[in-house]
């Protein structure tokens, strides 16, 4: 698996968890103090998130960091 594929899988996982909890992109971005466009790029796999970004998302979605990146 290359980096691009990994980014895509993590982005898909974030979207899946977000939608399963009924949270909009706008709301998740606001909770994490991100721009919605940045979250959109992350979910689309077009950016390489930092550990701190992934941690903020996992906290906001009330899942463990390992659940978030378990691809």
From TrEMBL:
Record bears the keyword Lipid metabolism: no
UniProt keyword list: DNA-binding
Gene3D superfamilies: lambda repressor-like DNA-binding domains
Keyword DNA-binding: yes
Single annotated GO MF: DNA-binding transcription factor activity
Residue ranges occupied by any HTH cro/C1-type domain in the UniProt entry: 14-68
CC terms in the record's Gene Ontology section: cytosol
UniProt name for this protein: Helix-turn-helix
Organism this protein belongs to: Draconibacterium orientale
């Amino acid at each position: 698996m290359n980096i691009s594929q990994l980014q895509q899988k993590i982005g898909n996982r974030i979207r899946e968890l977000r939608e399963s909890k009924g949270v909009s992109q706008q709301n998740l971005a606001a909770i994490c103090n991100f721009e919605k466009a940045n979250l959109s790029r992350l979910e689309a796999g077009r950016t390489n998130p930092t550990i701190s970004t992934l941690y903020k998302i996992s906290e906001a979605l009330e899942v463990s960091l390992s659940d978030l990146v378990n691809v």
